[in-house]
Known about the structure:
This protein is α/β, with parallel strands linked by helices and about 300 residues long. The protein has helices at about 5-10, 20-30, 35-40, 45-50, 85-95, 110-125, 195-200, 220-235, 250-255, 260-270, 280-285, 290; strands spanning about 45, 110, 130-135, 150-160, 165-170, 190-195, 210. Helix content is about 35%, strand content about 10%. Strands 3, 4, 5, 6 and 7 form a five-stranded mixed sheet that branches. Strand 4 (about 150-160) and strand 5 form a beta hairpin. The two termini are about 35 Å apart.
Amino acid sequence: MEQxxxxxxxxxxxxxxxxxxxxxLKHDLxxxxxxxxLLVRKSIIHRSTLADGNTGTNADLRxxxxxxxxxxxxxxxxxxxxxxxxxxxLYRRDSRGFTLERAPENKLVVTCRFTAILIxxxxxxxxxxxxxxxxxxxxxxxGKLGKISTDHWLNQYWYDKEQRxxxxxxxxxxxxxxxxFDPYDLxxxxxxxxxxxxxxxxxxxxxxxxxxxxxGWHGAIVVLWSLFYDFHALMNAExxxxxxxxxxSSAKFQNLTEEETEKxxxxxxxxxxxxxxxxxxxxxxxxxxxxxxxxxxLL
Length: 299
């Protein structure tokens, strides 16, 4: 692996930068990936867990007793968008910071993108090349509504001993049932990376409605959203859910030209091998305005 690529993923983004907490992450937290993952996962509650209460995957209260949550607590994705913000709030609610004994009412209510941000912040603080990745995961939904693949974020870290990226799903690590794989070392093809999913749709290898997101959208558009989340994440800019490119607006998506579609297809092909094609992806990042400039919110 080229050193410049490892240096790129070792560096912080505006979202993963832990601010004044960098030294605490480096020295106070364990170095073992699984121990870090458990501490992070025990610090957060997914919004679906909050909504479902003490049922489903939380029937055994593995995420805490939801009846102890303040009645006014709502999802905090739109508030705590950076690692620095999440860390500050974790320490404000419980000065011990990362602890397995954190009370439910003191946990953050955030989703997978935010778990990935925290993991990246911690591993980068320890000098480990790490990146967030966006795509879709079918392993949450076997037998629920048929076999479908929901939008999801996870991480990859560079394992120097074996010279490979290890894919880990910390957000899903405590909620998965009846799976044969290790969430701290996902085998290839377990996760539907966005580029693979997009090209599979374009090549008519899969029904677009196989893919959906947490807000109930189905089809190719949700994969397009994931594609640009993943592109930005690969470039160390892990944008938030409400932000996306012009191509992701419903009106624009319905009227993509052949030229625009080919540009997106080419991006996806490059993203299938992001290390081999790192220079080409960086060139697009630095020159292709329609891929980088965002819309949504106040943008």
